[in-house]
From TrEMBL:
MF GO annotations: DNA binding; endonuclease activity; hydrolase activity; metal ion binding; RNA binding
Matches recorded under Pfam families: Cas9-BH, Cas9_PI, Cas9_REC, Cas9_RuvC, HNH_4
HNH Cas9-type domain segment(s): 784-934
Gene3D superfamilies per UniProt: Ribonuclease H-like superfamily/Ribonuclease H
InterPro entries, sorted: Cas9 (IPR028629), Cas9-BH (IPR032239), Cas9_PI (IPR032237), Cas9_REC (IPR032240), Cas9_RuvC (IPR055228), HNH_CAS9 (IPR033114), HNH_nuc (IPR003615), RNaseH_sf (IPR036397)
Family: Belongs to the CRISPR-associated Cas9 family. Belongs to the CRISPR-associated protein Cas9 family. Subtype II-A subfamily.
Name of protein: CRISPR-associated endonuclease Cas9
EC nos: 3.1.-.-
Top-rank taxon, per record: Bacteria
Enzyme class: hydrolase
Length: 1363
């Protein structure tokens, strides 16, 4: 083979890249004596959410420190006059008396701290005294109180000015009206029975909710009777009662089902069920918001505000200050503690007495750094209460939720900053006559209404989120090398709350923030997407739904669609199917109520023109003025980005034609979320007729996917992307790409693999690159849930027409048992329990004997969707063969299919398939078939294709292969895929991809525009007889396939199948793993006390804080590894380099190699210090075990070959197997469930597979002598032979593991990765695959470090003894 004629196949996954290099005859290329086929494995790309969370917390604490530093500067001169060392002593307050650095002993605050604490048991006592007592206080006392106020200043959820603020800030009546409007938008059904709050009694309801004399449970029960607006329909009333129940639970802080409240369909309801008072509630809400539409988001925000108001009223009742409320809690707690002590003393059962003592200790102080919450504390107390004179009093307090209140709880997060500021102002006003500096006015006069005094700004000022870190991008790059700051300055110099507007350019910072926040178009790489509630984007979504819609099986005429758009959608926010049907019948000449299909929701449109309707109320007919559309879009974009109404108001000033009324009304508008497409894509790109995509959607019946696939637009999109790709690096392209971190990581790995292949092939570009992307499974699949709900709804609506009541009963049983609705059962219920072709009843108890048939045979078209599959008896299926049902006169397909279609049980497409005769297909229908079979629209495929196309220009053809074609060949030729056995399946898929790509390219030259990236030639596909493009290969009668024009042999059946099988049975392929450093948390965030220093390996909180005094963190995380030689033992050892040492090492590296080695030695040194305690004296001595650094940086997953062991370094203590297990075709067949049943294999065959695995382990897997895994697998054979074939269950409870599951667990434990499996069924005490060395991995002097290129074709081997 000439090196300039080779093809590459890529099987792209989110954690793997399979690759294969072939010649034009589909033979694998050999390089360096190896078949060039293999797989690159890597860790899936992760989101930055966890890092972002840590960064946000660090920033918050840093800004708190900044505020407190400014406070200290204000007070320092006045504190120094009476007590020069007060602040110095304060800074030492957290230094232990046992610490040798301690300078000040005894009372830290005053001459006698005892007197101070007796007078003011808590800081709230001090704050209250400073507000209410008319006398001169010690300046140090004032400082302590103000310090506390500023440190814990409260939230900023309410924007009310301080002089207008009330702790009853929520207007329940007004909010209820808003909620009802929102509920109408997402509670829609066939009879338009949306849930509504009872606004007529809202004043009474709000008083009840805020009544602290009642328990939360009582308030919930009583409010529930009045919350929902009354309806006459009993079934609807029951539904509303369920919603009202969850609503009342939510706002009162009880555990609530938010999916029920917000009308969300989910099969993971646990994620939606939580308390708003939970410590992690805010994080849960952030996750939920991503899955909600705008009305649902707004409703959730209001519910959260109600909860905050109700909780705040419980903490700080109206009319009380925070300090008064907290003092009251303190006094009650003190009083109740005396009761509890009395109860403990009176308890005769010592276990119960101890239980009460322990409950209180865990409630107040915690156990293992975790405190009991109030509910658990109450529960534990009640469990240990012994009848006494005071038992009833304690129980009464518990039932009233008033027993032992605490000052500091997570619920304090609902306290707004205005309440703290009010106390600060009262302190200032009370003490300013003695200390005039306290009343210094705010230097920033513009904010005097928000913060009257200079000190007020330390509570009231918040750095706007759109400014970000208080450092410019340039300065951040210089100082730390980081690149996430975006602040723009006006002036240099120190920034304070009082000069913020002078130093920071808020507007430019906001504009930069906009550019950072806006995601990119999923089609045009560099273009910013539109807001989800943009006028243009909402128009696009409505048109897309209308163009997918069918009335009585036909698309709406363009004129009718446009009329519906103007007269329905532009007038009403919510359009139900009923509204549309009534409108079409009344206004559009429909004689009967039309049947509506084609929508994603059966009851209503998902999209609306809500923004258009809102803005029309403000701007009237001007909303349709073309000259002002860009300005309207800017307003919407700003409202989407800026929660801060002040900056939004400032931005609105940029639009000069807005008047004051319009600005005021716009200021109250809130928009949420981002779309997926840009303005340029929808209206900027033009076809040869100078029409945009949105104009096509307006003037035709085409939906977006159809329009963008038109040759003109496809070419314009590619041209735009290629223009952006020119001159940009891969990272610059990915930075602009709208795709997940997982996809970005995969694309980076693709480029590395391709470049490595090109290097191995002499630098010459591939002739063709065929790509196929393997989609990752959904984390939360919802299909089966939605299927069942869909069928249940249809059965309900056509109840009288379902002849077989047993079918309805079976569906109800499925629902009650929460059984999974598999394809067979789904088809059974959608066919009303009848054979699709003959109309005979199907016995559901024998459903396994029935078969799923393809309506249009696979020889004609490869369509595995449910629209092309039916459930029929085996005899009927076998008799049909490759014919279509319409060819058999005995079948009652049309009659039965028409009935199912009329009832909504099957789609129009499925009905058409049932009555289709392939011989009658016209050229336009044919084109649709072709596109469905050949066009792959995966986003990652498109990005890879665009990048490779630009990289190789005209040198390489980029061919997109549909994922299903690989599966088709595997199924046809018995190439079983078992992901648990080894990683070679990725490589085989890559080979099949390049084979299919090469075959399609040569077999269908006139159709290349469909599958070759960058080819836009008009094609003639009307003469095709088959639309299964691998049909000729599958036809066992066609031994040879030739090119009709040239006579070239494209496929020789016997040789081709033999080649497939040969590659399938390869015992060796190239396998490489990405080597990496680790980033993230340096350790677990919990700080353990010094008391556990002896039992836990603690990490100091700070370098100068010994763990035996201050305690420390646990679970050190290493960044990378190193290999050292222990001098005395003459052995090599792997050690971890902690993440907390990375900054220090990076700084040393800048100074040169010697400095780096010195710092690295000191980082490793503590691991080789041995402590020895003298038994007689108790004296502890330390001795350093000498070592030298051999390899200063070794990455995770580094490949090591040591004797007959081949493994990767999982850490300094873990080895990961790197040998691939290979099993026979027979074993793979037995492991495949469908083949097992088809070939009637037995339990003995599973025993044979176990024996084959054992033989392979004995021969190649010496690594598994660790923990005696090999020995245990032999000893457990008898146990295995006695297992059942499959798992045995009692309901959902596993009674006994089966052989099939056990074999899969063994395979996973032997797999060449980090997986460990608990083989409890074989009585393994240690998980299989857990190759752990607690004292560290020891390497022999002959151990080899194998450094591999991305494909593994190039490698460098280094033996330790040679270093």
């Amino acid at each position: 083979m000439e090196n300039n004629r080779y093809n590459v196949g890529l099987d792209i996954g989110t954690s793997s890249i399979g690759f294969a290099v072939t010649d034009e005859q589909d033979e694998l290329v050999q390089v360096k004596g190896k078949n060039y086929i293999g797989v690159r494995l890597f860790k899936e790309g992760q989101t930055a959410s966890e890092r972002r969370s840590f960064r946000t917390t660090r920033r918050r604490l840093k800004r708190r420190k900044w505020r407190l530093g400014l406070l200290e500067e204000i007070f320092a001169p006045y504190l120094a006059q009476g007590d020069p060392y007060f602040l110095a002593r304060m800074k030492e307050s957290n230094i232990s008396p046992r610490d040798e650095r301690k300078k000040y002993y005894g009372s830290l605050l005053f001459s006698d701290d005892t007197v101070f604490y007796d007078k003011y048991p808590t800081v709230y006592h001090l704050r209250h005294a400073l507000m209410t007592e008319d006398r001169k206080f010690d300046i140090r006392e004032i400082y302590l109180a103000v310090h506390h106020i500023i440190k814990y200043r409260g939230n900023f959820l309410i924007n009310t000015l301080i002089n207008e603020f009330s702790s009853k800030a929520v207007d329940f009546k007004k909010d209820a009206d808003i909620l009802n409007d929102l509920f109408e938008q997402f509670y829609i059904s066939d009879i338009n029975d949306s849930f509504q709050l009872n606004t007529a009694d809202m004043n009474e309801i709000s008083e009840l909710l805020l009544d602290n004399s009642k328990t939360r449970l009582d308030r919930q029960r009583e409010s529930l009777k009045k919350l929902a607006k009354k309806v006459d329909d009993i079934s609807v009333a029951k539904k509303h009662q369920k919603i009202a129940t969850e609503f009342s639970k939510a706002i009162l802080g009880n555990k609530a089902k938010f999916d029920v409240i917000l009308n969300v369909t989910t099969d993971s309801s646990n994620d939606w069920s939580f308390k708003l008072e939970d410590e992690d509630a805010d994080e849960k809400i952030v996750v939920l918001l991503e899955e909600l539409n705008t009305p649902q988001q707004e409703a959730l925000n209001i519910i959260h505000q109600w909860y905050s108001q109700i909780s705040l009223n419980g903490i700080v009742p109206d009319g009380k200050s925070i300090s008064e409320a907290m003092i009251s809690s303190y006094e009650l707690h003190k009083e109740h503690l005396a009761l509890l002590k009395q109860q403990i003393n009176n308890t005769k059962d010592k276990k119960k007495a101890h239980g009460l003592h322990e409950a209180y200790n865990e409630y107040v102080h915690g156990n293992n750094n975790k405190k009991l919450n109030q509910a658990d504390f109450y529960s534990k107390v009640k469990q240990n209460l012994e009848s006494s004179l005071i038992t009833d009093e304690i129980l009464e307090l518990i039932n009233a939720e008033n027993f032992m209140p605490k000052q500091r709880t997570s619920a304090n997060g609902v306290i707004p900053h205005q309440l703290h500021q009010q106390e600060l102002d009262r302190i200032i006003q009370n003490q300013a006559k003695y200390y005039p500096f306290l009343a210094e006015t705010n230097p920033n006069e513009k904010r005097s209404k928000v913060a009257k005094y200079k000190l007020d700004e330390l509570v009231a000022f918040r750095v706007p989120y759109y400014v970000g870190p208080l450092i410019t991008a340039t300065d951040q790059k210089k100082t730390s090398g980081k690149e996430f700051a975006w602040m723009v300055r006006k002036q240099p110099g120190r920034i304070t709350p009082w000069n913020f507007d002078e130093k920071v350019n808020k507007m430019e910072s906001a504009n930069t923030f906009i550019r950072r926040m806006t995601t990119k178009d999923s089609y045009l790489i560099a273009e910013d997407v539109l807001p989800d509630e943009s006028l243009l984007y909402q128009k696009f979504k409505v048109l897309n739904e209308l163009n997918n819609l069918r009335a009585d099986g036909r698309k709406l005429k363009v004129s009718v669609k446009q009329k519906v758009f103007k007269e329905l959608f532009q007038q009403q926010k919510t359009i139900t199917i009923v509204k549309l049907q009534n409108y079409l019948k009344a206004e559009c000449s429909f004689l009967t109520t039309p049947e509506i299909s084609g929508l994603s929701k059966p009851e209503h449109f998902v999209s609306s023109l809500a923004t258009y309707i809102d803005l029309k109320k403000i701007f009237g007919e001007d909303i349709d003025n073309p000259a002002r559309q860009n300005d309207f879009e800017r307003m919407i974009e700003w409202a989407t980005i800026f929660e801060d109404k002040n900056i939004y108001s400032e931005k609105l000033n940029e639009i000069k034609w807005l008047n004051d009324r319009q600005k005021k009304e716009l200021k109250n508008k809130n928009y949420h979320g981002w779309g997926k497409l840009s303005a340029k894509l929808l209206k900027g790109l033009r076809d040869s007729d100078e029409c945009s995509i949105i104009e096509h959607m307006w003037n035709t019946q085409q939906n977006f996917m159809q329009v963008q696939a038109e040759e003109d637009f496809a070419q314009r999109i590619q041209e735009e992307n290629n223009q952006h790709l020119k001159g940009n690096t891969l990272e610059e392209v990915l930075a602009d790409a709208y795709t997940s971190p997982q996809n970005k990581k995969a694309i980076r790995q693709v480029v590395k693999v391709i470049e490595d292949i090109q290097k191995a092939m002499g630098g010459i570009a591939p002739q063709k690159i065929s790509i196929e992307f393997t989609r990752a499974p959904e984390e939360k699949p919802r299909r089966s849930v939605e299927r069942q709900q869909q069928i249940e709804k249809i059965y309900k609506s056509v109840a009288n027409e379902v002849e077989n009541a047993g079918v309805k009963d079976e569906l109800q049983r499925f629902s009650d048992r929460k059984q999974t609705l598999t394809d067979k059962y789904f088809l059974y219920f959608t066919q009303l329990g009848k054979d699709m072709y003959t109309g005979k009843s199907i016995n559901i108890d024998q459903i396994g004997n029935y078969q799923i048939d393809h309506i249009l045979p696979q020889a004609f078209i490869k369509d595995d969707s449910l629209d092309n599959r039916v459930l029929v008896s085996a005899a009927v299926n076998n008799g049909k063969s490759d014919n279509v049902p319409t060819k058999n006169d005995r079948y009652k397909v049309r009659e039965h299919g028409q009935r199912l279609y009329d009832q909504g049980l099957i789609s129009k497409r499925k009905f058409n398939n049932l009555i289709t005769d392939p011989d009658s297909i016209n050229k336009f229908t044919a084109r649709g078939f072709v596109k469905r079979q050949l066009v792959e629209t995966s986003q990652v495929i498109r990005l890879v294709a665009e990048f490779l196309y630009n990289k190789y220009q005209s040198k390489s053809e980029i061919i997109e292969v549909r994922a299903k074609m690989n599966s088709q060949l595997r199924k046809d030729f018995g190439l079983i895929k078992n992901r648990n056995v080894n990683d070679y399946h990725h490589a085989l898929d890559a080979y099949l991809t390049t084979f299919i790509g090469n075959y399609l390219y040569r077999r269908y030259p006139k159709l290349r525009a469909y599958f070759t990236y960058g080819c836009f030639k008009k094609v003639d596909d009307s003469q095709l007889k088959y639309f299964n493009f691998l049909h000729d290969i599958e036809d066992d009668k066609k031994k040879i396939i030739k090119d009709n024009d040239t006579g070239e042999i494209l496929w020789h059946r016997d040789e081709g199948i033999a080649r497939f099988k040969r590659i399938y049975n390869f015992k060796y392929m190239l396998v490489t793993h990405e080597v990496l450093t680790r980033q993230g948390a340096m350790f677990k965030q919990t700080v353990y006390s010094a008391a556990v220093a002896g039992s836990k390996k603690l990490i100091p909180v700070k370098e100068d804080r010994p763990i035996d005094i201050y305690g420390g963190y646990t679970n050190n995380n290493d960044a990378f590894l190193a290999i050292v030689k222990v001098t005395k033992k003459k052995q090599y050892m792997v050690v971890g380099i902690p993440q907390r040492a990375v900054v220090k090492l990076n700084d040393a590296a800048k100074q040169g190699s010697k400095a780096y080695q010195k710092v690295l030695y000191n980082v490793i040194k503590p691991q080789f210090i041995k402590k020895k305690k003298d038994r007689k004296t108790g004296k502890i001595t330390q001795k350093l075990e000498n070592f030298e650094i051999v390899v200063s940086k070794t990455l995770y997953r580094q490949l090591i070959i040591d004797g007959d062991q081949k493994y990767m370094l999982g850490s300094s203590a873990y080895k990961y197997n790197a040998k691939q297990l290979v099993l026979s075709e027979y074993a793979l067949e037995v492991l495949d469930r469908s083949i097992f049943e088809k070939k009637e294999y037995t339990t003995v065959d599973l025993d044979n597979v176990y024996d084959e695995i054992l033989a392979q382990v004995d021969k190649y897997f010496s690594l598994y002598d660790k923990n005696k895994f090999r020995q245990k697998l032999h000893e457990s054979r008898k146990i295995f032979t006695e297992l059942p074939i499959n798992n045995l269950f009692s309901g959902t409870k596993l009674l006994k593991s089966g052989k099939r599951e056990t074999l899969n667990e063994i395979l996973e434990g032997l797999h060449a990765n980090a997986t460990k499996k608990d083989l409890k069924s074989l009585k393994f005490s240690t998980p299989l695959g857990m190759i752990q060395y607690p004292s560290g991995i020891i390497l022999s002097e002959n151990a080899i470090l194998c450094y591999q290129s991305p494909t593994g074709i190039f490698e460098r081997r280094v033996t330790l003894k040679d270093l």
